Amino acid sequence: MALKMTLAFSDNPRIDPLKDGTIKPDNIDLEFVTTDTNTLFYRTLAHGLEFDASEISISDTLLAKERNDTIVEGSGIGALSRCF
Questions:
Q1: Structure confidence by residue, pLDDT tens digits, 1-34
Q2: pTM (global) more than 0.70
């Protein structure tokens, strides 16, 4: 029996291989929720357990950690989306 996971991301081309099945983890059924980043960050912080994993900004992560918000847990997997 496969583990079911709901992942929430903005429309990000780096996630496309997971979404289209090019990359498929063994024994995990992935369900994707795609929304704009502001809505995504709000839903992650306000509703907490709505998703098994989601994208969140480093600033929102640090603020949640400062408040001892246990909703934001796990490891950060970082990737810069912009060049400066």
A1: 889 998 888 888 888 998 999 999 999 999 998 8
A2: no
Q: How far apart are CA 24 and CA 5, in angstroms?
A: 12
Token couple for 70: 């246990």
Alpha helices (runs of H) in the chain, residue ranges in sequence order: 16-19, 37-47, 58-66
* C-alpha–C-alpha distance, residues 41 and 11, integer Å: 13
29 Cβ neighbours under 8 A, 6+ residues apart? 2, 3, 4, 5
Amino acid at 26: D
What SS3 state is found at 34? strand
Report the largest interatomic distance among the alpha carbons of the chain, rounded to a whole angstrom: 45
Q: Which two tokens stand for residue 36?
A: 């704009």
